[in-house]
Amino acid sequence: QVQLQESSPGLVKPSQTLSLTCTVSGGSIISTNYYWSWIRQPAGKGLEWIGHIYTSGNTNYNPSLKSRVTISVDTSKNQFSLKLSSATAADAAVYYCARGAPNWGRGYYFDSWGQGALVTVSS
Amino acid sequence: QSVLTQPPSVSGAPGQRVTISCTGSSSNIGAGYDVHWYQRLPGTAPKLLIYRNSNRPSGVPDRFSGSKSGTSASLAITGLQAEDEADYYCQSYDSSLSAYVFGSGTEVTVL
């Protein structure tokens, strides 16, 4: 049973880069074809898909965030990471990492989620 | 503003049946993209409840069922139990946005 756990500094200053890491346990991040994803939920708002990194290393980002997002993977640590540059108050949210399971060539669904990490953007 | 629209809340007495709608458009559900459902119990991570419109992962009770028609999908909970109190979200893909999208979320209350 794969498990995901986010880690983050919790507080980020405006204009700085927001960084989170997701540690995957119970399975190798490169052993099977999954989409390792980031999703966020600002307080009082809905869930927003940020992007993913595929097992091959290919990435795909939400166009609304694409200019500021980088998702990378560290296979030696079985982790993947999110960096969101030029943070503003609008980026304050609970950030989830999740595993995307392929859906018969029609995208994917999230079959495992982390508990979520709260990120505050404030000076 | 979520791309997929859900009612903010639904409620029912124990044992009753409740349904949650998820309304999309011609660029997501109506375009043939599958709908998936998640349950988030208070203080826990979201959990996959239904995938590919109507399929239940192992361990999900058969009280939960999903369907899809046209530009909408529905999640039904039959034999409502106290432990079903949670937030429920639908998810699909939107070709106009080139992004995976979620519903606004529905809070289920057991009276």
Question: What's the SSE blueprint?
Answer:
The complex is a heterodimer of chains A (123) and B (111).
Chain A: E1 3-7, E2 11-12, E3 18-25, E4 35-41, E5 48-54, E6 59-61, E7 69-74, E8 79-84, E9 93-102, E10 108-113, E11 117-121
Parallel strand pairs in A: 2-11
Antiparallel strand pairs in A: 1-3, 3-8, 4-5, 4-9, 5-6, 7-8, 9-10, 9-11
Chain B: E1 9-12, E2 18-23, E3 36-40, E4 47-50, E5 64-69, E6 72-77, E7 86-94, E8 99-102, E9 106-110
Parallel strand pairs in B: 1-9
Antiparallel strand pairs in B: 2-6, 3-4, 3-7, 5-6, 7-8, 7-9
Gist of the model:
The complex is a heterodimer of chains A (about 120) and B (about 110). Chain A has about 120 residues and is mainly beta.
Describe the structure.
The complex is a heterodimer of chains A (123) and B (111). With 123 residues, chain A is an all-beta fold. Chain A is built from no helices and 11 strands. Chain A has strands spanning 3-7, 11-12, 18-25, 35-41, 48-54, 59-61, 69-74, 79-84, 93-102, 108-113, 117-121. In chain A, the strands form 2 sheets. In chain A, strands 2, 4, 5, 6, 9, 10 and 11 form a 7-stranded mixed beta sheet that branches. Chain A is globular. The N and C termini of chain A lie far apart (39 Å). Chain B is mostly beta strands. Chain B is 0% helix and 44% strand. Chain B is built from no helices and 9 strands. Chain B has strands at 9-12, 18-23, 36-40, 47-50, 64-69, 72-77, 86-94, 99-102, 106-110. In chain B, strands 1, 3, 4, 7, 8 and 9 form a 6-stranded mixed beta sheet that branches. The radius of gyration of chain B is 13 Å and the shape is globular. Chain B starts with 8 loop residues before the first strand and ends with a strand. In chain B, 38% of the residues are buried. The mean pLDDT of chain B is 96.
Strand content of chain B: 35-45%
Mean pLDDT of chain B: 96
Order of helices and strands of chain A: EEEEEEEEEEE
Tally of helical segments of chain B: 0
Low-confidence stretches of chain A: none
| Element order of chain B: H for helix, E for strand | EEEEEEEEE
How many beta-strand elements of chain A?
Answer: 11
Q: Largest sheet of chain B, described in full?
A: 6 strands, mixed
What structural category do the secondary elements of chain A indicate? mainly beta
Q: What Rg of chain A, in angstroms, do the CA atoms define? A: 14 Å
Please summarize the sheet with the most strands of chain A: 7 strands, mixed
- Computed over alpha carbons, the radius of gyration of chain B is 13 Å
Number of strands of chain B: 9
Approximate strand percentage of chain A? over 45%
